Please model this.
Amino acid sequence: MKLSEELQWRGFVNQTTFKNNDAIDGAPITFYWGVDPSADSMTVGNLAPALMARHFINHGHKAVLLVGGATGMIGDPDGKDEERQLKSLDEIAKNKAGIVAQYKQVFAGQDFTVVDNYDWFKDFGYLQFLRDIGKHFSMTQLLQRDFVQSRIGKDGKGISYAEFSYSLIQGYDFLHLFRNNGVTLQICGADQWGNCLSGVELIRKLDGKEAHVWSSPLVVNKATGKKFGKSEGGAVWLSAAKTSVFDFYQFWLNTDDDGVLDYLKIYTLLSKDDIVKIINEFKQNPAERLAQKTLAYEVTKLVHGQAEADKAKAATTALFSGEANELTPTLALEPGDYDIVGILVRANLVTSNSEARRLLDQGGIKHNQQKVTTPKVALAKGDVLQAGKRRFVKIV
Model:
């Protein structure tokens, strides 16, 4: 299957500057994709375009992976309704290291180059940037960007000159990589389309050459209509320190039937034949949840390695058996009657008493898979408490 066909089948086709999608099926292209170090970890939202990049590599294209040390000092305003808090240089350095480590995990065994845009911006003078780069950007076009309009329009919270200039910085990234690394294509999520076009225009105006952008749709949870990757506790991170391996596995295991088939295509590297076979078996017996089980294992293996995926799978099985392993969340208690609100807080299944009470009122707490309807619950060794869809603890 050609790359353009595979990306279409997997759901990685949105907007592109190519006249025909099959332009990516020819000679090898050097492309880049980047992440700003706004945190020391990527989220599952970042993971989708990362896997799109994997398919480009698998089809013979050369990858340059950028970590935005410079752009991270400003912060991308797109999709934000108010100004970001600036991060310290030490925090940015720590975050960059975290992102690069995840590049090495997700792209393990692939041929790629890592670059940091701070390296070419640290000695770039302000006046030089305005003369060489800023002169080529139209204020009219920049003001028409959706994120700018949302911030300066009625009820908008305004935008600083720094964040307004973000698109110029990203545009120069493309120009620099075009000139120094032979990059002629930037790939991105749909929310970065406008920023990427800045680079295409800059390359055309300054070097008279052609460069392109390929974007993928943002992944949307069909059940909620919201951007995929948000859990009850916020974003789902690739870092085990932010989202435990067990919780990461549970997030995928609890995906809804409507979306799981799309997620298998987007978030795993399984072949089309394998995915079609899984989908057919799943449709014949949805109760077995083969699609969710496969998805959870494959994504956890990709992000955390096979050994951790095996532990998460075993820990899930152990929840409702007499066993437990190092990933199984546990709470040591003497047998007896307990206030469910206090226990949920103590077990870190909720962040506050009010969240626990709300879950109780909404029927979102289970004891051994049965809904808890009273404030007091009798707990014994081996019992399992569940808060929401994917937060568990086993009593030991």
Summary: The CA atoms of residues 111 and 249 lie 28 Å apart.
